[in-house]
Amino acid sequence: MSPHDLMLTAILLPLATALLIALTGRSPNIREAVTLAGAAGLAVTVYELIAGFDAATAQPLVIAEILPGFALMLRAEPIGLVFAGVAAGLWGLNSLYSIGYMRAEHAPRQTRFYACFALALSAAMAIAMAGTLATLFVAYEVLTLVTYPLVVHWQTEGAIAGARRYLAYLLATSLVPFLGAILWTWIAAGTLDFTPGGILDGKLGDGLLTVLLLLFAYGVGKAALMPLHGWLPAAMVAPTPVSALLHAVAVVKAGVFTLLKIAVYIFGIDVIGRGVGDVLIVIAAASVIAASVIAMTKDDLKARLAYSTVAQLAMVTLAVAIGSPLAIGAGILQLVMHAWGKITLFFGAGAIQIATHKKKLSEISGIGVKLPLLMASFLVGSLSVAGLPPFGGMWPKFLLLEAASARDLYLLVGCLGLSTLLTLGYLVPIFVTAVFRKPGEDDPHALPEGDHGHGDGPLPLLALIPPVVTAAGCVVLFVAAPAILRFVAPAIGLGALP
Amino acid sequence: METLLMIGLLAALGALAVTIAFMDDLLVVTMLSGIFSFTCCAIFVLFDAPDVAFTEACVGAGVSTVLTLAAIRLTGRREKRVGRRASAVGLIVSTICGLALVYGTLELPRFGDPLAPANQHVAPHYLNESAAEIGIPNVITSVLGSYRGYDTMGETVVVFTAALGVLMLLGGSQARPLRRGDAPARADRDVILRSIATLFVPMTLFLAPYVQFHGAYSPGGGFQAGAIFGGAMILYGLVFGIDRLNKLVPERVLKVIAALGVLTYGGTGLVTLALGHQFLDYDALSPRPSGQQIGLTAIEFGVFMTVTCVMILLFQRFASRRSEP
Amino acid sequence: MIAQHAAVLVVVLPLLCAPLVALLRDARIAGAAVLIIAALDAALATLLLCQTLDGTVISYALGNWAPPIGIEYRIDLLAAAMACLLSYAATLVALFLPVSLRGTIAPGDQPRLFAAFLLCLAGLVGIVVTGDIFNVFVFLEISSLSTYVLIAMGAGADRRALTAAFDYLVLGATGATFFVIGIAFLYVVTGTLNMADLGERMATAPKRAVIVGSSFIFVGIALKAAMLPLHRWMPNAYAYAPAGIGTFLAMTATKVSIYLLIRMSDFVFDTPGEIGRVNFAALLPPIGLAMLVAGSVIAVTTKDLRRLLAYSSIANLGLMLVALGLGGIAGIAAALVNLFNHAIIKGGMFATTAAVLHRRGTTRMDALAGLSRDMPVAFGFLVLGGLALIGVPLTAGFVSKLLVVKLAFEQANWLVVGGVMLTSLITVAYVWRIVEAGMAAPAKTAPRHDLHPAFLLPVGLLGAATIGLGIWSEPMLTLAGRIAAQMIGGAP
Amino acid sequence: MSDLVGLFPYWAVIILMMTGLYIVIAQGNLVKKLIGLGIFQVSVFVLYIAIGVVDGATPPILSPGFNSYSNPLPSVLILTAIVVGVATLAVGLALAVRIRESFGTIEEEDLLPLTVPELPPEPEARP
């Protein structure tokens, strides 16, 4: 298949999967088989795209023109392919996990769940392949809307309230600052095409560019830059697989990916680097530290992970704001590494919930003894997210330090160091509590085992394998990171690797 | 002399209008508004518009008043006093509108100015060419029926729509079971009333065709004739009781004839279309000017049918409704 | 022959069929007849659109009296497009009107209601195609009178329909009288009633009379267009009218007023973007913005779905006025795109609401609970329409909003940009009230019982158009662009 | 002075129209509103007819011996408008009757609390 066909396949395949899921909803087994087949197909398609990618021959594919100059266009390029690879690769694993999780929880409305999941992936693929800012915006909105049913899945009052918050934040930011910034760009530059080197240089003064960048940074609500991060913890009312794939991978990464694309292809890396991004550096750095501190105060596991995500996303925003090829490279790697690390953690949190019906840090003392493999994976994920070798998460942190010191931002270097410590500070205690504390030691309210309604079910195999695989992935990525960097280097003008 | 008469009539109208605004007995108000209409008729005559005066007398002063009275019988006679706020709003809005209008008149051509644009551009064509093009003396009829015949068709449809509306609102499944309507004039008592009515109803009925067919030469036409004919029937109903009127002209028949009237008008237009001319181009029927006259006769007859039947229908519907729920 | 006379037939067909339908006894036959007549009318309107697409202006002299002596039908692209909108809307509504009336109106009354519906259609089309300003008044009255009665027919389900109809009658008649006063002033200084002729002769007319005349016409239209602060009749009228009728009104009634505004701003007064020599265009953005904000805010607080949609219509009318007020070819084009798109979006939502009403007997927000489970298809279309109202990409609403915002952006009119964007947020709030109301757990579980099949085609078509025009907006933009260019007289 | 005489009819008519409009807005009784509407409309008719008057002319019915006629067009327009007026009045009165039957009152003040949107829908009682 030609690259064009592959791009279309990558978007349409999940769409078709969603349709098939809706049609086969009556028999769960077939439905879930369809999901898995779709995930496998998508993974193969994206692999083909990456393997066959050739910057010299990549041609845009115009799908439709909503308004003159506001066209829907696809174009494959390295950063997008990396994002597509991450999302497509993790969908299959997450589907396996979903099957285990949803069945164990006897969740209702599973057909809608799987169908919307597939739709979300379709939107994520469209974001990855977007050739214009217009296309990206459209797909971005679609992603918001198709994930709403997933977030509101339990349809309890709390879920509806949380989902309302989720939607309000994301739609509000996208309909006002994001769309406004897009229009501004459109009118200033006359085009919305993603062009290497940017389209805004010389069209607006640096002061205005700074404002525009901030508009984008806050307009892309999915990047969860503080103080517009409130939707992310609110969205944790969703079933854990949703939190895992969407709020560690597809949705939030779509946000920071959008920022990366805007930095590289709309502003131009150099433009940001010459001072336009300075305000954003401060905000992003503050966001990293503040979110990490808040994370330490959260007792609920998923809330803790959510704030951790806010902090880690801010690091990508930081990379964008620094505005050097090296920093952008770090940002891209952070996108990949954090996805694998954080999904491991979410899988772990969900598995703990299935196995013990516990959601809080203060309740999980001692459970690790029964779940050794799971907790090991959890530890790997934690260390990777924190940025320790020999795990993938080390690379982006390291490169970011390099980039910061290359621009003589020593305060920032300090911040990054502090953030690693804070990350360890809020993630490792989970592992420690679960493995080394004795049950009931910390928790005066702990109930004797067996008092819960369901009792402690055995952990389904389907909920155990995915975290183990992703944890292994963190290790593999440590080795593979330079290859990824080489893949994107031409697009971001990155010379020799450090 | 005419100026003085005009000033006097306008002053009378003003006095009437203000009285109406402040009276709270609806019966009196209705009668006063009937008088208001009649006074306007006088003004119309004074202003060289006998056709309008004629129609206003039949429709505005006659039918409207009867309908309002019939409605008041059903809704109650007394009005409640209104609060201050509403009056203030009304006063402000109407004052502003009035001042705006006065401002607009400052540059208008003076009253009766023969050189005013209104009397210069299109009107002379009607006055000068109508004799040759249509061939009848009453220019108003020729403008109404031919030059602006399409408006008149629309107007016929408006009348039909009103009948349809009243039938839907007070008829059909909404109709309350017909009770013996109260005949205001009783055989034993109101001898004079009944005698006069017996005399006047047939006379009025005969007047209608005259007004209808003489419309080409003097004030009159389908609307006026219809209103007169309908008025006569309404008088009959008022004096001899609504039941007898209902029996004399059943609603079923009236509905069909009212619809046929609209169709006669529209059908004339369709015939001209079929003959290869424009819609309502009466020249299709026969060469000028006889074609125009055939066409005018046809549509005036359509108007007559619709207006007569609708007037009676409206009255019947209001009058046969029981007053207590 | 039909092609030659389509201009007049498009009005006369429903006008003359109405008396016939009124005389029918069988409600089912009458319902079918209305559908056929409306469809034929749509075909005629389409024919007109084809004839005028290349910029031709059809002038049809009624009675063969050359204008300004006689009445002229003057059909340019705008008139043809509006005629299409009106007749298509009537056809779609006629598809489900009989079903939606079942139970609230006695079968014996239905033929008359259908006749009134045809008269309403004929009146509205008549307003659109005519080139004579007094003829506008006559057909305005035909459509208004039938509308009052149609609204009052909602009394079978809710007696407040009667007061709603009465309020509308008083306001409508007052508005029409203002319109007539305006005509009087214009006539007295120009001596003509033909709009094109009027436009030419206006240039030399006394200024004050023209200002006052156009002001009164403006107020008359504003009443009909539910412009703030004259909007109060509209939510009641839409909420209490029989559901099918409400759908038709939402798609057409106020749109025709906007049409008149566009027509008047160019045809009669011949000063693009300005009505008369008072710059009415300058009035429009503030009024429009106020409507946009007020309509959206009130929509958030309403307790009835149809009322919510009615207030949302006020907001959207505001958007059209804003676009119109921005002026120029682009402004008129944006207003037109908004007009057509909104008719489609809101028509779809009202039709879906009619389907819900038909199944549930109420459209109160708290009675929508469980809708997503019992009527998933209807719920889906409601959500789709709601997304379009918000202006989510890939829906027609996005295109219309983006056009306005972009235009305002280019003119650096930040108030409009900010106002439109911020009201999108309020729109999110009220649309999400519908979504959450539909997802709430019902008090008692009902069996799944989706739309009556009669609703499927209209709802489906309007829904498809909502998405279709959101992705492939080119035909609509081209049409609007050509109309606007024709109105202003420049090259497209 | 000639201005005053030349414009007086218009102004008098304007006062009449505005009295009618005042009744429409200010009066709470629905039938009274309709009567006010009638006065408003009839006054507009007078305005039109006043426009068509030509000094020293006769009504526009052609006859030998006259050569100055008043303007026929306003008369034609007003003939139409009169009919429209009565049609509106009829529908309005029918509505008022129905409102009286359903709500027991035709006073706006008393109707307001009965028609607030918050009330549950109440079908009209069928006889």
Plain-language structure description:
The complex is a heterotetramer of chains A (498), B (325), C (492) and D (127). Chain A is mostly helical. Chain A contains 17 helices and 2 strands. Chain A has a domain at 277-493. Chain A has a two-stranded antiparallel sheet with strand order 1-2. In chain A, helix 3 runs antiparallel to helix 9 and helix 6 packs antiparallel against helix 7 (206-219). With 492 residues, chain C is an all-alpha fold. Chain C has a domain at 282-492. Chain C is built from 19 helices and 2 strands. In chain C, helix 1 (2-23) runs antiparallel to helix 2 (27-52), helix 12 runs parallel beside helix 16 (396-410) and helix 13 crosses helix 19. The longest helix of chain C has 33 residues, at 328-360. Chain D has 4 helices and no strands. Helix content of chain D is 69%, strand content 0%. Chain D is mainly alpha-helical. Chains in contact: A-C, B-C, B-D, C-D. The interface between B and D is large, with 107 and 91 residues.
Label the structural class of chain A: mainly alpha
Number of DSSP helices of chain A? Answer: 17
Uncertain segments of chain A of ≥5 residues (pLDDT<50)? 446-455
CATH fold call of chain D:
Helix Hairpins
Number of strands of chain D: 0
What's the mean pLDDT score of chain A? 83
pLDDT < 50 stretches of chain D = none
Give the N-terminus to C-terminus distance of chain A in angstroms: 37 Å
> How would you sum up the major sheet of chain D?
none
**Largest sheet of chain A, described in full?**
2 strands, antiparallel
Strand content of chain A: under 5%
Spatial sequence of strands, sheet with the most strands of chain A: 1-2
Oligomer: heterotetramer
Helix fraction of chain A by DSSP (H/I, runs of at least 4): over 70%
Write the layout of secondary structure elements.
The complex is a heterotetramer of chains A (498), B (325), C (492) and D (127).
Chain A (H helix, E strand, L loop, with lengths): L2 H21 L4 H24 L9 E7 L2 E5 L3 H28 L4 H20 L3 H19 L5 H33 L16 H14 L11 H4 L5 H28 L1 H8 L1 H20 L3 H22 L2 H32 L15 H15 L7 H13 L3 H27 L24 H32 L6
Antiparallel strand pairs in A: 1-2
Helix pairs in contact in A: 1-2, 1-4, 2-3, 2-4, 3-4, 3-9, 3-13, 3-17, 4-5, 4-9, 5-6, 5-9, 6-7, 7-10, 9-10, 9-12, 9-13, 11-12, 11-16, 12-13, 12-16, 13-14, 13-15, 13-17, 14-16, 14-17, 15-16
Chain B lengths: L1 H21 L3 H21 L3 H26 L8 H22 L17 H11 L5 H9 L1 H22 L20 H23 L8 H19 L1 H7 L2 H24 L15 H30 L6
Chain D lengths: L1 H25 L3 H23 L19 H32 L4 H7 L13
Helix pairs in contact in D: 1-2, 2-3
